[in-house]
User: What shape does this take?
Amino acid sequence: MATYDYVCPDCGNTVQRNYRVPSIVRNCENDCGFDHYVRADLLAKVEQVPEDARPDNWADLSESHKLLVAMREGIVDLSDVQ
Ligand SMILES: [Zn+2]
Assistant: This one.
C-alpha cells in the first residue's frame, strides 16, 4: 500500500499515512505551534517560488512562512492546504 509523507513545516518532522490529503491536523511533538503537517510534495513546491518573489530574508524564513509566500504567489493553492 502506498504511503505519503507529511511534514511539520517548522521542524521537518515527518509522519507517514496511507491516505493522500493536502495536510493533516496534528500537533507536532516538538511543540512547533503549527498544527498541520503538510504533504511533502506540496511543501516541496516552495522551491518553485521565483527568485524575485522571495523576500530578502528567504533563507531565514521558516518552512511554514515560505509556504505562505508560495500561497501568495499562487504556486500553492490555498484550498490545497486546508
Ligand atoms: Zn515541528
The mean pLDDT is 88. The chain is about 15% helix and 20% strand.
